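@channel sequence for tomorrow's demo:
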Amino acid sequence: MKIAAIDIGSNAARMQISSVLNDEGRISFKKVEYVRFALRLGHDVFTSGRIENESEARIKKLLLVYKLLMELHQVDAYLICATSALREAENGLNICERVKLELGMDIHLISGEKEAEMINNVIVNELEDNQVYLHIDVGGGSTELNLYNGKIKETSQSFKIGSVRLMEGKVAKDIWKKMNTWIQDNVHNRKDVIAIGTGGNISKLFEFVEKDEKGMATLEQLDVALKYLSKFTIEEKINKLKMNPDRADVIEYASEIYFSAMKWARSTKMFVPDLGLKDGIMLEVYQNL
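structure tokens (generated this afternoon):
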């Protein structure tokens, strides 16, 4: 059996096709195809409030490519989820209707809360009992925060602040204060909070850090890595460090969000599992089957 997950974010769209493996009742997913393309829908939405015609055409072309790949792989089921940019666009629903009419593909505009829930479903297996975690997921348009006590999620909140939105200067002035207050109110005086980072930018930053035996890095190490990256121009990040262009110009903005959340939670350590929304979508596809 093969299933697919498609995540249309504010910065990029991703599709992963996986084989479902069943080892004596233990289910796992083996990646057989992964495609990522920088649509940059957030640039349209966070500046004009709508998806421009050219961007809509690119969405349709990309989804047609994804559809053909799924046909070649003989995918049994798939799910398309769109997050901040498309759900906020004033013409987002109309675009979804046209995609359904022209391509026969359903796009689900999920809320920030649903996005956090889907990521939670795959993150929870990485957690240990008797430990407090702050999960920070930074996308192009929004940031999802989840607070865990062991494997139990106590609370979560979505904020309209993300790497692309911040780069475009379209973050409301009070969002930083609201996020700080939410963290302070929920973390209270709990000590040794471990941060969990998900998202492409923190995964890339983590490549420049030496991790400990548990795969963790300190906030100080991450800050040193960011200062190192900041010495390079965008062109140098692309050509010397081999970053994707749509990563090179936003990684510092995304890092500001991760670092701020960690400082407010008095968290000094972070680990970055190789998991994200696409994995949560994949799990939901399988559960729906």
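heads up for whoever presents: The chain has two domains: 2-111, 127-277.
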